[in-house]
Amino acid sequence: MKSAVVVFPGLNRDRDMLAALESIGGIPPVTVWHKETGLPDVDLVVIPGGFSYGDYLRAGAIAARSPIMQAIREKADQGTRVLGVCNGFQILTEAGLLPGVLMRNASLRFVCKTVRLKVENADTAFTRGYSAGQIIDCPVAHHDGNYFADSDTLDRVEGNGQVAFRYAEGTNPNGSLNDIAGVFNEAKNVLGLMPHPENLIEAAHGGSDGRALFAAALDQVA
Ligand SMILES: NC(=O)CC[C@H](N)C(=O)O
Fold first, then answer.
1. For 83, what's the count of Cα atoms within 13 Å in the CB-facing half-sphere?
2. What does the record give as the active site (predicted)?
3. Full-model pTM
4. Among 10, 51, 105, 166, which lies 20 to 30 A Cα-Cα from 59?
5. Cα 63 to chain center, whole Å?
6. Residue 3 — very low, low, confident or very high, per pLDDT cuts 50/70/90?
7. Which residues contact ligand 1 via a Cβ below 6 A?
């Protein structure tokens, strides 16, 4: 499957994401600069992590107003898979493509470590390579990963199976409501998560628990 990685000024995880997608999908992704107004004909659009616009105003707030976002919105509405990791997740919430917001970590500190995640919904294009309830390792590196949504939105997200991943008991690194680490849109073709699965895909990374997410998103699993 063909994929595109969208790059905004200040991102720093784009190369990791490009390498992961090529390694797992076998096809080099197309890189798209945020000032473009159109996307190539791809099956998966990825917004990687980093510090778009230096996280000024709020993380992801300025990038969410970039020209490319209209094209991403249109692709998402057509059912194309869209994945946002870390700053990508923040951009997708700021753009209104995913519910909720990412606030400053409860500790007010940047957190960089490996946490354990529980796969909450394994019945989607992104998560079908895992089983429901499976516990996986995944690194996090952020200062604004504290997931929040008002109670009506949270009820809807929980009720619709839109929680993709939760931090496993005792490992919530940022104070996220209901230990939420990643959410889907209602149609489940848009996924955002704070942890970095692209940084745990081979032995040299110390594990490969992140691999199944890309394998599924790129249709490499049955
Ligand atoms: N690694 C990242 O993508 C960092 C995300 C974001 N800028 C934060 O620190 O919260």
1. 29
2. 86, 196, 198
3. 0.97
4. 166
5. 15
6. very high
7. 13, 49-51, 55, 59, 86-87, 141-145
